[in-house]
Design goal:
By secondary structure, this protein is an alpha+beta fold. It has 2 helices and 4 strands, in the order βαββαβ.
Amino acid sequence: MNPTKRKYRATFILDNRGKEDSIEQLIDGVKTEISAVEGEVTAVENLGKRDFIRVTDRKFTGATYVQVDFNAPAQGPAHLKERLRLNQSVYRTFVVSA
């Protein structure tokens, strides 16, 4: 039985400080995590580096923002956030239903 999939748009703030990985490699890692929660990536848009409005760390004032559209089961976003919580390359995750 195939569960009904919903459309979601996620915005990720990627942190590559002190890492040799490029932004494209980090995006591929996020796409792999989405696939791991039974999601299908439909579109990826790199929004580029932006400054934070509220800076919590003076040494980290901005990062690269990426928007990803994907289809996943209803529990997909919760599982995705939990998997990415431990990933040091993803600073923040925002998921909304599209």
